[in-house]
Amino acid sequence: MRSAVFDNARSGFTLLELTVSIALIGIIVLVIAGALRLGYRSVESGEKRVESLERIRSSLNIVDSQLQSFIPLSYEDAGETKYYFKGERGLVQFSTNYSIWGGEKGYVVATYAVSTADNGKQILSAAETIVGTGSGRETKLFTNFNTISFSYFFKDPTAEEGKWVDQWTEEDVLPEKIALRLTEGVRDFIMIIPLRTHTTQKGD
Q: Which H/E stretch holds residue 37?
């Protein structure tokens, strides 16, 4: 009889064993929950990264398409013929037949301007004005870059080699190439876009 009672007592859980079991289960649940949260954050971070890269790729395609479709349109200002092209380190203005919103439907004057956000990062905005109407739209192409800048390839007809300049001061000649430079942390990306039309403007 005593042996049976003793065996029943040994087959059950003591309070200490039950407490330890609950604690272990709790630790396992916490570890699993932490792993799930980490996995979810990794997936979310990866999706945001992919979305950011896709936006950058789309924006680069827009810049390339508009500059490749450059057309040297002119306008009259106080009896003087002027051209829409303007090139600076933080701004480039040009006329093109490719619109961000309308595709290849008419002529627009596109202006890419670099500005600085409150967090110190730089932003590249694109604005379009429809030639002959004055109406236009604006959007942001790039955000949260350390630096964004343009440069222009200049080659003197009498020189053997050309050079890159931060500001285009020539009135009668267009740059052969335009470079867009983006830096983010240690990454430095440069896209060089050749202009299809780089002859003397006043002859066009």
A: helix 15-68
Place of tokens 């919103």: 101
Distant-in-sequence, close-in-space partners of 149: CB < 8 Å, separation ≥ 6: 89, 90, 114, 166, 180, 181
Report pLDDT digits (tens) over 166-197.
999 987 788 989 999 999 888 898 999 988 76
pLDDT digits (tens, 9 = 90+) for 100-148: 887 666 789 999 999 999 999 999 999 998 876 666 789 999 988 999 9
Helix (H, G, I), strand (E, B) or coil at 156: coil
Closest CA to 126 of 154, 150, 161: 150
Q: pTM value? A: 0.71
Q: Is the distance from CB of 64 to CB of 39 less than 8 angstroms?
A: no
